[in-house]
Sequence to fold (812 residues):
Amino acid sequence: MHRLLSPKRLPLCAGLLGAAFVVTPLAASAAGKIGIIGDSMAAGTHSLDSCGSLDIVECVEERGGYQDRAWSYARGEHAWPLAARLGFTPAQVVDAADDGEEWKDAYDQAAQVLSDPALDTVMIGLGANDICQPSGHDYAGDLERVAGHIDRTLQLLTDRLPEGGTIYWSAVPDVAGLYDMLRERDHNLLFESCQATWDLDTDRVSDGAAQDACDHFFDNDLCRLADTQEEAKDRLVSLFLDRLLESQGVEEGPCGKILSSSSTDEDRREAREFTAALNGLMREKAAAFDGRNGVRVRYSEQVYRPTRPLAPEHISRFDCYHPSRAGQVFLADQIWRGFDGIRPLGHDVFVEDFAAPQYCRANDAAWNGCWVEADDDDDPASGNVRIGDGRLQVGGAGTSLERGFALGGYTHAWLSFNWARDDLDRALDYVSVDVSADGGASWAEVARFAGDGNDFGLHRGDYHDLSEYASPETRIRFRASPGLGSGDRVLFDNVQFIAWNELPFTAWPEVPATGSVQSGVGLIRGWACEAEAVSVSIDGGDPFPVAPGGGRADTAGVCGDAGNGYGMVWAWGLLGNGTHRILSYFDDALVGHAEFDVVALGDGFVTGLAGEYVLNGFPNPGERVLVTWSEPDQNFLITGHDTGGGFADLSAGFTGSSRGIDADAERQVGGAHHESPAQHTIQSGVGLIRGWACEAEQVTISIDGGAPIALSYGSSRADTAGVCGDADNGFGMVFAWGLLGTGVHRLQTFVDGVEIADVEFAVQAIGNGFVEGLEANYTIAFPDASSLVDLSWSEADQNFRIIAVQPDAAGD
Fold:
């Protein structure tokens, strides 16, 4: 058994990334214009939430509204569409998106938006109709045809957009996932009514499903005054489906290849494979055209792999296919998240899925406390108010359940949830959803779910704009009426708050990112323009400080200066294998969170291991790299790169002219220590320059005799408390070593002008020092032949990361 270090906090630092990481700012007000190239999803078709008092025929003719609710842009002054998030007003939008458009139509749309001489930005959302072909369609040859249309369109755009222009391009959602979601047990009646709509079939929908579908599509008197389920069915079919056939002139409902009842599992498998191939093709084309004629191409694949699942409330009440208003918000949120580097300050999502009978879950810190019962038994697993089968049940006269949300600083907050009535037989039987902006001192009713009604277990979706109630003390409440009958109840699920503000893009928590895998000793890092204090919390623990102010030259264009970096070293393995959650706070305001996975060797920090491995075919065919186990990093570092002449001995370049650590000088400044890079070590990837000092006004470094660079100082270092009497002594910065170039380099560290270290180290760079677009995975036998470790290239770290460990790795 290898000896494991005690689980104390490892060295912390804040950081610099230099020119390696380029940030695209969110403009407070864009100067040019943005063009929209897309299909009906980008156009907002059928996104109207309800017909209200409209006759069904009039409602169908309205076709659900258009761009006032589209993910791409909005005619109204909304903050959530992507164009608005990029700083464009409705008057600055040139819209060419239209129903039924495929990639073959993209060139003409591009020519249309380029006719405006002020255009400097384009947004593309195409491909769903290339997937959504009629029943029985054969995709053979489709990908090659689409590739030709993409090339022609991108060539036109990159030829005609001005230098410095940008193309924002989204992947295609998993349309087959819509079918799967609606087939789930909780949504089976909705699936039945949707299947009738997809088939345009007047005979297949049951009476019960027809009544529910009528209510679902049209919340007006035409449905409510139907005396019988059969009458509701007649009205639904004759006034909706038949009118849709007549007005649209179609013979089959939307996306027959996937959604028609005549489609098979094989059809849907083929559609999924084509979706994956199409998204892969678009990703490759985006990378190929990025930078052509000075035009940047940004590609977002997040909507294809969303951070939260598609839900019934995201689907149009008209055709069970296009996004509803809530669905358009969902698309905007997911697409936006996929554009690395432009995530807005303060964008957050609070989610409660009632997956377990608990009132306090792991994400309590993101909320504002736990769920609190009133007038029941205070037990989440029993009573009239309880959690079971993945849903919240609210029953019993006068009971309630409430919880707070940390919405301080947000200007927008939208609430969505699923609901279903169960045996409510009179108007006095209801459960309301209420909101409070003052911690519960006063309440406003958001929605009321009353009898006479029974939703047969169907979880329908609702969505509410609660922006006026966003505050540090926002609370929501589910409240049963005083007259709620015995056995009556309303079920709730998938409670979600999407919250954001309209501030210019002035900060970004970078690492760890949602969905990432962390291992070894790594970094928590990001930047913020004017934050006086930065802190993070992990897994609901107390926030701890990270010193801001590290040099970040890449943020100068956004912030007006470069001293905006923050960062800290963290031994990820000490958290334990599994999923973890980090919250980031700037000046005590929660501005972001991420869920990530940790893969660790042993108990998180192992000693006594050694290993050196050759990875063939990286970074290019015919080349290879040498990776060496580094105990301080708890990971492998690239220590050699063979392009054909063998591995060079980097250590042969050490001269011995540097004296290393000056212990006398460290004592002279009142206690300090330079830790990394250590004397005569080899560095690669993105790493740390770090150390600590008990009392310092300023800590600086010089690399290769260059000008002094100020480091962030004041990060928490609990391990220095015994020496210094306090813990806020860490200094450091994040550094992309490859930017120095392969070879031997020298670094000097100064505390208040006194040199405490002069170290010589070697750098192994790949390419130009920061390479993009590489992917590679390897499996090695480590630490011996009895165990295996999977390595994966991480662009953010410019190094390989451990992503999986067999059970016996590290001797455990």
Observations:
- DSSP finds 17 helices and 41 strands in the chain.
- The chain has a mean pLDDT of 79.
